[in-house]
Amino acid sequence: MKNDLKISHIQLRALIISAVIGVGIISLPNDLANILEKDGWILIVLSALLIFPIIFMINHIFKINPGKDYFQIGEETLGKVIFTICKLLFLAYLIVYCSYEVAILSQLIKAFLLHITPVEIIIFLFVLTSVYISSMEIDIIARAGYFIYPIILIFAGIFFFISLPTADFSNVLPAFQSNFKNIPRGIVSTFFSFTGFEVLLFALPYVEDKKKALKSSMIALGIITFIYLLMFFTTLTQFYLKQLQGQNFSLVMIAKTVDLPGYFLQNLDGVVMAIWILVVFATFAPAFFGAGKILSNTFRTKSHKYFLLGLVPVIYYLALVPKDYIELQRDMLKILNILSFLSIVVIPFLIFIVGIIKRRIKA
Amino acid sequence: MIKTVSKDIDENLKYIKEVLKGSSDLVIREFEIGDVFRIKMATIYIDGLSSKEFVSQFAIGSLFKEEELKSFTLEGYKTSILDAIKKDGLSAADISEKEDFEEIITDILSGETILFINHSTKAIKIATKEFPARGIDEPKTESLVRGPREGFVESLRFNTALVRRRIRDKGLNIEMYQIGKRSKTDIALLFIEDIVDPKFLIEVRKRLDAIDIDAIIDSSTLEYLIEDNYLSPFPQIENTERPDSVSASLYEGRVSLIVDGSPFVLVLPATIGTLLNSSEDYYSRWIEASAKRILRLISVVLILFPSALYVAITVYHPSILPTKLSYYLAASRINVPFPALVEAIMMESTMELLRESGTRLSGPIGTTIGIVGGLIIGQAAVEAGIVSPLMIIIVAISSIATFAVPSYELSTALRLFKFILIVCSGVLGLFGLMLGVILTGTHILSLNSFGIPFSSPYSGLGIEEGDLKDTFVKAPLKRLWLRPGFTFPKNKKRMKEGKKHEK
């Protein structure tokens, strides 16, 4: 059988969830607490509501252009020159995104797992390992997403339950005491926690059941929001606000402090880190794949394999640019936020609007 | 060089003798029949492949006895002698006419008897195939507590009969192929026409037709020729010795290939889900079977991870363990002169060595190897302080776990990856282990078995159809009223939706 690419809508759902939940989840509760204190959950809900129309838009683009991939649609609606600029922006975003992910990963692994191994080796090996799966087609990546998806769900569940005995629910209250002027600033930074759904642009043309695709991506968004909320409240019930604000990696800290009854397992931070490597991998691989696909589309080659090998040193050097965690979070994230906003909100929006206008003119 | 049977019998015989001149087991019996006109005839067969008794009694004997042939006169030439012989000269059950010498020689070599008649441009093939074969026996590799005790044997016809006896289905197709340019091995393709996905069948036929090899000796040869990724250590085609398992998989919309000369029948497509199923699951109660299936999945984890985790934890992350256990671990390793990586690889290799030597030896000596290996070497190694006792326990558990995986090929592949993971975690601890998992996982995910994802159903295909009910666990039979979805069966329903009989 000629292996024509096919993704079921269930796989699409899993792919989105595993592609969105990534490095961000470990520091998300802390970020939220810093911006909006105990009302951080408002930001999660608001961001999800903002993402909602974008996902709808992307689905709509593919619905009115059946059988075409993102590049064909973009070229036809925006014209070759403009879309090439768009592609370059998208490429830049994906590369920076990959470097950011792997930079954070290396920082955390150095802090929690391998104290003396140089970050260079960690970064290089991780990127090199990902070349294998990213050089395959989207259906294989979707299968990987389906494998990681239950791991994320199970671990979110386990996390919640092991922290139940020490949870102090009075920490959640009082609500609505924070400074709501911070909301716009907060949304800009929580929006990044939801990036990753741009994998839709590569996956949607191959989804078998187009009608269910929209529903599935919405369910995925719902599950992601739920997991983020669960993680936020779990950490909030574990720490006082000031404690939470001072802890960059609150989820790992919970794992470190939790003691299971019977003392069979202590110090779960290592285990959590190990699982988290898989979770980061599942966000990294689709983005890396996307970067390779953009390059192979620009240079009109059949396979994107060799571009990936070419991207390895690029990502490696970019990931080493920020000197420490603070620089990483402050400067790189700022660039990344702008790029992500341009390439996954503005460009699809342009295609969407221009597509509608062109259609009107024709009719 | 003649292509078809000539009128002159001597020429035909000369040709046969010329072609098969190296075959000392060729038997040619020439004789003449008829009182009035003597007609020269000859039977040809291979000694040992054909039933001598059958040839003498029902072919030659009946020709001699037939009165009409004896009194064959000139009038007889109105109907050809060939027809006369076919009509009442032969009492054998299965005969047919042959012209082409290529076919005739293949027939002779596969055990049929060929009857040449003078003045006739056609020869008669008499089905006399009978060769020494092993009787039907209990399958050696897949024994069950409850379930049929029959196993496949080496001869193809017995095997198709074993399947046909279980399925009196008019939809059951048995397509014959002769593959192997020289060996001309018979291969049967079995499927149920109104269940199997036609696209899948086309692909199987295409791959069979594309085979270009001189000889196929065993079904494994065929397996390696038609599988998707021949570089992978994972088996992408299932093999079984059990006719019941083949019959059941035909009803799942799968296809099976029987190769003459091999008691292992191929079943395809194979996925992780099917490779971890045993036919015992279907003969025991659902809750027990479900527990066993989950246990098997755990055993996969136990094959892959314990040694690698041991290495990663002792070398890089002793803090993961509870304090007491971590002290105990350090204390047990205090006399061990090797790094954990060397220790683990040493012990795992010893285990592989024991297994390899054990499988080559039969019965009592094999047991000795087990005792010497397991008890003496293990005990002595700990006392000598070369390895820690925990390592012995881990190696023992993970090698016991390999026997819980029903597919031998799958467990072999997993054992190979175990070594890779040990090395990965020896180099970079848990991070290395995870990189190893990613690489292994990617490889498994990238595999296809005839276009069907090898990792199904755990990678998404067939989830909606409820394949997890018959792979991850085994639901009660009444709940399995749909065929599994991963084969895209044409006919999805197995039975009516189940209800309890309670009032």
Automatic annotation (TrEMBL), chain A:
Domain of life: Bacteria
Subcellular location(s) per record: Membrane
GO cellular-component term (any): membrane
Record-linked Pfam families: Spore_permease
Transmembrane segments: 12-29, 41-62, 82-106, 112-134, 146-167, 187-207, 219-241, 271-294, 306-323, 335-357
Predominant location: membrane
PANTHER family named in the record: SPORE GERMINATION PROTEIN A2
Descriptive protein name: Spore germination protein YndE
Lineage of origin: Bacteria, Bacillati, Bacillota, Tissierellia, Tissierellales
UniProtKB/TrEMBL annotation, chain B:
Keywords, in A-Z order: Membrane, Transmembrane, Transmembrane helix
Listed GO biological process terms: spore germination
Domain of life of the source: Bacteria
Membrane-crossing residue ranges in chain numbering: 294-313, 358-380, 386-405, 417-439
GO cellular component: membrane
UniProt cross-references to Pfam families, sorted A to Z: GerA (PF03323)
InterPro entries assigned to the protein according to its UniProt record, in alphabetical order: Spore_Ger (IPR004995), UPF0353/GerABKA_families (IPR050768)
PANTHER family in alphabetical order: LEUCINE ZIPPER PROTEIN 4, SPORE GERMINATION PROTEIN
Homology family: Belongs to the GerABKA family.
Protein name stated in the entry: Spore germination protein B1
